[in-house]
Amino acid sequence: MAFDLEEYLRTAFRDKLRLQTVPTCDAAMLLPSTRLLQKRREVAEVEQALQSQREEFRQRMERLAQRRQQLGQREEELQHVVLKFDAFLKASAARQERALRRAGEARAAGQGAETTRLCQELEGLLQLRERGAQHLRSLRGFEDYLQGVLARTGQFQDIASMLAHFGALVEMRAALAQQAEAGQEQLARGRALLRQYQEEASSQLLRTEDELTQLHARLEAAHHDVLQ
């Protein structure tokens, strides 16, 4: 960077001298003191230009340094963000792995529980089938009995029609029993009404007897008064 600055200043000084050089014919006509003053003025102008160039270059270098510092800070911030994001990705991957492991364990436990439930249900169904088979074997005697009744009666085609006939008889008997029960209830209500009428008639008879007793007493009292 120092080499570039030196080369830049040398080039600028050379260009400044080239632009401000007095033509040969004019320089020959000037006095030595005048030429010396002119050279000094030219050197001062060149020095001022060089100083201005130095200041501009210094300011540019400061801006570059500030920019480099800002870029370094930005790079550190980006690196910090990258590290945080990397840590977040690792934590997220770890959480996902734990969730998958727990899900696998829960799935395995659920499958074990489902298997146990299915085994229990199957055992219950087997027990139910066994009880049904035992009940069916216990009904074989009734089937033989119904077959004998069907053969003896000779008026039914099969056991189903015979059972349907007996079912109709049972329903008819239930209906007759219900009618009889209704008749009994009606008879009970009639008896209760009759007792009520009897009680009312008895009460009326008692009141009438009381009135007759009172009238008889009054009649005797009147007869006694007449005799007196």
UniProtKB/TrEMBL annotation:
Pfam families: DUF4200 (PF13863). Residues 36-81, 180-218 form a coiled coil. It comes from Alca torda. This is CCD42 protein. Transmembrane segments: none annotated. Keywords: Coiled coil. Residues 36-150 form the DUF4200 domain. One of its GO terms (cellular component) is cytoskeleton.
